[in-house]
Amino acid sequence: MTQQVKALVAMAKNEPAVVTTINVPDPGKGEALVKVLTCGVCQTDHHYIEGGVGDNFPYLLGHESTGMVEAVGEDVTNVAPGDLVILNWRAVCGECRACKRGDLKYCFNTHNASQKMTLEDGTELEAALGIGSFAEKTLVAAGQCTKIEAELSEDQYAAVGLLGCGVTAGLGAVLNTGELKRGESVAVIGCGGVGVAAIAGAKLGGATTIIAVDIDNDKLSRAKELGATHTVNSKDQDPIEAIRELTGGFGADLVIDAVGIKDTFQQAFYARDLAGRVVLVGVPAPGTSWDIPLDEVFGRGGSIKSAWYGDTLPSRDFPMFVDQYKLGRLPLDAFVTERIKLEDVNEAFETMKTGKVLRSVVEL
């Protein structure tokens, strides 16, 4: 039986998303119907509106969510009705070449629901990142549901749901991709939501020197609150020289580029110590490039990596992050700047551009 629910849909490129009624089918084989509790407003959703992800309009937006499983289809064993879950966009297939070699976090064929949700007239919807959770209910592959056993209050759902995307991307860039070791130094260039999550991850992982770099003093203040030991305004100081000065003249052991433009990547490359690591987690615009001198690559050693979802395996990492949150070691509440309604999302997209919020979170 199909259910009708309220949802936020991008009908056409560069037009405001609209709150409308959609049809959500009962779950089929391997699928789960989820009652959405919270959904964060992420830059990725706005990329869909701009046509930056594709042109398969209409798009059902939303993906950073907590929810309650309402029903499951045939052969679903990982979750059951009544389970509290965080939705994720890496439902591993178990069959691709990455999975077969044991690298499930790199699964190249992640699962989404087989059935499509639709507009009232039957037009099929493309769900953002295969989730589409700016909706009262959504249909996903069961593997996109990560069960959370920890006891949480309703007020905590909004914070925990942000693990579904941006916060985990930053945490994972440091802890997984960057392979932070206790006592190392970390510099994070770009202190938006992903960047400050990387700073929180550096603190959680035991870094001793944590340097936040940005051109906005308000963002740097926020980075300080979330664990930065030093801040650098790169409008006023050369960030490469500043990072070296703060690390004994050597450079940081690990540098995170959370912006993804030529200038910041170049800064990250040169601000690391010999044999240091660079991790790119900021998403570059198509065609972004920099001519890297190969003698410098060879001479500096170390590694240059990109972080895919923070190299996160949701079934492993989400429960661990929730446990760290419950222990008071991971300040997820600080990422929730405001709580809003579904009708407020377009305004939240505009607020997001100002950099004054980490996350607006829709509570359904």
TrEMBL record:
Residues annotated as domain Enoyl reductase (ER): 17-362
Superkingdom per UniProt: Bacteria
Molecular-function GO term, any one: zinc ion binding
InterPro entries: ADH-like_C, ADH-like_N, ADH_Zn_CS, ER, GroES-like_sf, MycoS_dep_FDH, NAD(P)-bd_dom_sf
Keyword Lipid metabolism annotated: no
Record-level GO cellular component terms: cytosol
Protein name: Oxidoreductase
Protein source organism: Rothia aerolata
Taxonomic path: Bacteria, Bacillati, Actinomycetota, Actinomycetes, Micrococcales
